[in-house]
Every structure is written in C-alpha cells, then in structure tokens.
Specification:
- The chain is mostly helical.
- The protein is built from four helices and no strands.
- It has helices at about 5-40, 55-90, 100-130, 135-165.
Length: about 170
C-alpha cells in the first residue's frame, strides 16, 4: 500500500478522533461544571451571575478552581510539548498521522481535558467528603455525577486509543 492510499484510508479515522476529542472535551467541561455547581448549591448559593458580582464563597470557589485548572493544564502542556519536540528528534510517532495536526492535538487536547478531569474529580471528592453537611442532597446528586464521569472516561479512553491508532 502506498503512502498516499495509507493517508487516504486514515482520514476517516482522524476525523473520528477529532470529533471524539471535541465530545470528550465538552463532556469533561460539563462534568466538571456540574461538580462545581453542586458544591456551590450545597453551600446555599443557587444563583450566580457569570461575569458579575457574586458572594465571596462563590468567588473563592471559582478562584480556587481556575488556579487548579490552569496549573494542571500548563503542566500537562509542558510535558506534551516536550514529548512532541523531543519525539520529533527521536522519531517518535505522533497522533493523527503526525505533522502539525498531530502536534497541535497532542499539545491542546490532553492539557485541557486533564484540567477539567483533575478539577472535576477534586471537586467530586470534596463533595463526597463533606456529605454530612447534607446527606440527602449528596446521595441524590451522586448518580448523575457517576453517569457524567463514566461518559467522560469512556469517551477519553476511546479517543486516546483511536488517536494512538492513527500515530505515524
């Protein structure tokens, strides 16, 4: 099989990986946002104004979350950028058929999804550990959280496996 036909055959799989990447990113963002909202609601803050004035608790919650998110995203970005640039010298394969698309995907998708995943799971753990504050609310909220995080993990695993399959 020639390189041209090999690339042509890989195009649908690359498109699937890109679509799954967007789905995974959105699901991780949604699951993370849900966890932060549950923390906020259990503390008694049911309405907020995005971009406006909010109670000190809400602002502190969001500040902590932003710091955690961007720290994780930056660290994963540095690791992935190092792998992309070192890998180019060492002949390592890149996802999505290599090239600029594979490098961009490797430096954007993992950091952003890792940020949402780490922040969301940290929020979930905090939510569970303080269940005594409102056991009924926590018990009622956990099945929805489990469903969202299951979707995120399944989408993430599928995306990564397929992305690795496209590596060149």
């Amino acid at each position: 099989m020639s390189d041209a036909s090999s690339m042509r055959d890989a195009l649908p799989l690359r498109a699937i990986v890109l679509v799954l990447s967007v789905v995974t990113f959105l699901a991780a963002a949604k699951a993370h946002g849900r966890q932060v909202r549950l923390e906020r609601e259990r503390a008694g803050y049911f309405q907020v104004v995005f971009g406006g004035q909010n109670p000190a608790f809400v602002e502190a919650l969001w500040r902590r979350d932003r710091l955690r998110f961007w720290t994780v995203a930056a660290l994963v970005f540095i690791v992935m950028a190092g792998m992309v640039f070192a890998g180019a010298s060492l002949g390592w394969a890149r996802p999505l058929g290599g090239g600029a698309l594979g490098a961009a995907w490797a430096m954007l998708f993992p950091p952003l999804v890792a940020g949402f995943l780490v922040c969301g799971v940290a929020s979930l753990m905090g939510f569970i550990s303080t269940r005594a504050a409102d056991p009924r609310f926590t018990t009622e909220a956990l099945p929805g959280s489990a469903a969202w995080w299951s979707l995120v993990l399944a989408a993430l695993a599928t995306t990564v496996v397929l992305a690795l399959h496209t590596a060149r």
